[in-house]
């Protein structure tokens, strides 16, 4: 059975781009007689606001979507810690004490997520009481797994290139946010039985890393569907701070939610919104 998911973080309101993402995931599941799952990714401790999750549910309901909600990330911390421990035991994690500024100074390459970590702390001795992040030794991990591939429904089969992202952080330095997106989302998708990981093209590069983690941790390998992003008139991702109204604003303003959902399904975008690339027909 096809299981897709929508996994927003409650650190800001949802906007049109989220609505599009949720509708794509919902409709892909529905078209295949599958299940659409909502997962609240609420472990960004400092920025997470619990009341926003209720707004998210109201937004999805307003759009006319139906979903099954699974446990939020904050209820899964033990699972993240256990997986990190396993990778550490395999000798695949190393501690890193670099700051963002250290990395920006030392980096020689840019990835999709900013400067690529150049491996400064790999093999370095770090005092035991110093706060550290734990990074994946990607070259060593890939040496053990051998070449990996994964499939995006739109882009086709991909040779996994987690090396392009460098040695990503799996366990954050900040105790408030213990697991990184890479570790948490990969474990969650497996635990939730997600068979089709549906999300925006901005996370395409992350899937290379997730494929590697699945192999290392013996998790099932889903298919992916990365959809085009909706952009504002300046070609930037939609965000409330750049004047794009939130779904909650639209809902409270009396806009017709199902009509908005229908327009997005038919790829009729409101004025000032452009797709980052040609949109496929409705799913
Ligand atoms: Zn470091």
Tell me the layout of helices and strands.
Blueprint lengths: L2 E4 L9 H16 L3 E4 L11 H14 L4 E2 L7 H13 L3 E4 L3 H7 L3 E2 L2 E2 L17 E4 L1 H8 L3 E4 L3 E4 L9 E3 L9 H11 L4 E5 L3 H14 L5 E5 L2 E2 L15 H6 L4 H9 L8 E2 L8
Helix pairs in contact: 6-7
The chain binds zinc ion.
Average of the residue pLDDT scores:
92
Shape: globular
The proportion of strand residues reads 15-25%
Radius of gyration: 19 Å
Give the termini distance in whole angstroms. Answer: 17 Å
Helix content: 25-40%
Structural class: alpha/beta
Number of strands: 14
Low-confidence stretches: none
**Distinct ligands, ions and cofactors found in the model:** zinc ion
User: Helix tally?
Assistant: 9
Describe the structure.
This protein is α/β, with parallel strands linked by helices. It has helices at about 15-30, 50-65, 75-90, 100-105, 140-145, 180-190, 205-215, 245-250, 255-265, and strands at about 5, 35-40, 70, 95, 110, 115, 135, 150, 155-160, 170, 195-200, 225, 230, 275. A three-stranded parallel β-sheet has the order 1-2-3. Strands 4-7-10 form a three-stranded antiparallel β-sheet. A hairpin with a 3-residue loop joins strand 8 (about 150) and strand 9. Helix 6 packs across helix 7 (about 205-215). Bound molecules: zinc ion. Zinc ion binds near residues 96, 97, 98, 120 and 121.
What labels would you give this structure?
283 residues, alpha/beta, three-stranded antiparallel beta sheet, 17% strand, binds zinc ion
Task: Give a brief outline of the structure.
With 283 residues, this protein is an alpha/beta fold. Helices cover 35% and strands 17% of the residues. The chain is globular, with a radius of gyration of 19 Å.
